[in-house]
Amino acid sequence: MAVPGRAYHADSDADDEYERSEFTSPTLPRDEDDDTSPTNSDPPSTEPTPTFDRSNGDKLSPPESMFQWTTGQCADFISSLGLSLYCDKFIENEIVGEALIALKHEELKEMNILSVGHRLTILKGVYDVKVQQEIPVELDHYIPP
Fold this sequence. Notes:
6 helices
């Protein structure tokens, strides 16, 4: 921005240069004999990561058909919906994939899942997997609006 009556000077950015020279990034003190980087960490683990294969683009479900899910996989699915507080209920009630497919509000209430919002989250998540896996949706099953 030009100020009337003043000429432009080539060193008009001097303040910026001064600020840049005064403020430098902090560095960690290093031992001169230490050749390791401060960001070095342990070598990568060879243990498999206990997660679902997400290569199919699905963010919530294991790769197998929902019909084949174990109680543990159903509990993991519930956890992936952000409802891990109900994982034990799914294991205690032996909810496997076939049962998960057929669950309705009434069954979730019987499992003591009292929050309507949580029941809807579960039913919507199950519906999404059914659609993704092309599992037929029965007329009496939950269908989101």
